[in-house]
Amino acid sequence: MAKKISTKTKFKRKKSTAKAKSMPKPSKIAKKTKISFKPRIKSKHKANKFSQTDISKQEITKLKKIEIKYKNSRKDCLKFKESFEYANGFNAALLRAMPFAVDIVDKTGKILYMNDELESVIGKDSLGKKCWLKYKDDKMQCRYCPLRKGVSVGETAVLETNGAFGGKTFYITHTGMVYKGQKAVLEIFQDMTERKNMEDALRSLSVMDELTNLYNRRGFFALAGHQLSVSKRRKIKFSLIYIDIDNMKNTNDRMGHLQGDKTLLDMAKVLKHTCRESDIAARIGGDEFVILAVEAGVKETSAIISRLKRNIDNCNAVSPYKYKISISLGKAYYHHEETATLSSLLEIADKDMYANKNVKKG
After folding, report:
1. Residue 9 above 90 pLDDT?
2. Can you give the pLDDT at residue 300?
3. What is the side-by-side strand order in the sheet with 280-283?
């Protein structure tokens, strides 16, 4: 009996098996009816469509981006700082090595920096002092100093300054810049004294006779032409005295050109002693001289000629040479009512001079 199984029992087992087959597995149930255990945010305001976890993720992402950006920015800043320090170091070394005096001044003219070249001249204690008090002989700010107009960064101006560092002439280059966070001006001093002296000498040689140190033909026409314009405008009279040294060719041929030069020098000295300060004396040819006598009519011109002849006689009296100076002269007068030119006046005086020379020859 123990081995015998009833049909009822069998049926029941089959039924339970069927039930087991018809019921879904727990895992399948979980998939279909998944329940979220995330806590909801209770707020009086309208609920956010993102959960708290989602917001946190967004903030973290944003913070990471900001951090990366900051790190890159910091790297750029460090690179810029290194470049800036290198550039400043290079510029400072360059300024120290320059063969010119250099300083940096603020908008009021106070010295903020100076290189070794300038420091050796005006001293270390010059920092903080007005620049013109240290290098200008008269201790005055230059009339056309660019600082008077204010500082413009990047703008450059060159100023010629006379009477600096003991009577010298300097070209000062002013360049607007930013120095230690404030507007400033870089000044470079270039000593032009020697060059200016040379230019003056060359300019003098172009209008002066090298032997006699009187005006040459070019110099005379420049000054006399100006005087003619002034005389026309102010209605001032003047006269021309044309002078020719007699027998100059014979002197050069018989006694040599050295003696001829000495005669010319003696004649130049006579003219300098004869002329008034306002008169213009010049050597316009080999042995030809001219005097422009300002505000001189017939009477004043006659007085000048008398003084000229007297001075020649005095010169001949003390001269150690056998040759004596003799001259022929002619005159021309200018009146403001006339339309005469300088060339026409010289031609009149020249003709008068040759007429007098011919009278001497008989």
Report:
1. no
2. 93
3. 280-283, 288-294, 238-245, 327-334
